[in-house]
Amino acid sequence: MYSPWKSNILGVVIRAWMFNSGFYESLSDRVEISTPLNSWKRVVEGVYLHQRSQSPYEGDVFHETPTGLLFYTYLLKLNCNVLQAVFILCDVITAIVLTKATRLFIQDIVKDQQNKLKTYHKDAKTITLKKEEVANVPQYVTAAYLLNPYIVCSCVAMTTTVFANLILSLTLFAMAKRSRLLSTGCLALASHQSFYPVMLLVPIAIATAKEKQLLKSVFLTITSYALFTSLLIWFSYLSTGSWRFIESTYGCILKVPDLTPNIGLFWYFFTEMFDHFYLFFTYVFQLNPFIYVIPLAIRFDDNVPLLSFTLCAIMAIFKSYPSIGDVGFYLALLPLWNHLVPFFRHSFIVGCIFLVTSVLSPILWYLWIYTGSANANFFFATTLAFATAQIFLLTDVLFAQAKYDYHLKHGVDLKINGKDGMLVLE
To answer: What is the pTM assigned to this prediction?
Structure first.
């Protein structure tokens, strides 16, 4: 059996080497990695203002929550090497939590297939999952997280996405354990920082629902989440003495006032947008990721792991200030769907686009900002291609799952009038 400790040790060594080699300065300024919401330099400035009895929320620099402000104030008291070790440790803990969550998810998937075995086609035995076949999947998730270049760069740049990913992994683990209180508590903390994880309320309600009690589970989940969120907001108010932080945190996420370039889709469109259309298209862009939640929940209500993975991917693609750390998080969960690989259609194309855009992005940024031989259109073309690759990947996984479910019920061999048939999504 594959040992996860090799990945843990190698991941720690790579991060420690990059920290000691001075990669922090160059990576922390990369717009693909650091955004107005997760930049460590902005955190340092916010803590500096707070320690001098000035509100960090008066300007347009600090966008972390008051809860995060108190946490980062404590972190910045640590020695530089200890602080770097904290970031590395958080990544390792996130990988371990994701491993445990994946193990529970894969057990649920295998158990669900065993319970439905009588409803499957007799030929489907060749593609049904067996425990011994998926035993190493959790370890692959560990490696996919700790050795992912996107995650490594995010850690070395000391972005607060490291902590956001840790909280999100705890949410998935609590969801896999079917613990409503723990999952809604972690989700409240995650959405308190970046808002978009609130859409995970739907898979939590489905996962914690007892048989034929979905509406009751939805009510209890929303109530529990609202209680935890209210406590966090009230604590934030008490720690700052005003409600100004709401405009600087949630207001910044939803209104998108800072149009610093990043790997997302917002900055370019709103740079070119006329002022009188700005508010309307802000609503359109912000509603976009949420309109997929209910349709996906209806289609994959019996597959909570896939629903959660899909929503995490949608968050990373369509949020207002995404970074490669967000992308790396859901990419680490891909080994959970290695049984769907034979049904993928665009894996090679998607892989090539990921590779090309990851290389071209810093090059075109340099040509645009430093040499002036390119313009914003060049850089945005790479971010648009990067988002397109993510959408292709996500649709590939969902369509592969749909084909897999079809083959389980109707058999592997598709024959129409004696000829090989082909599944078409309509």
So the answer is: 0.93
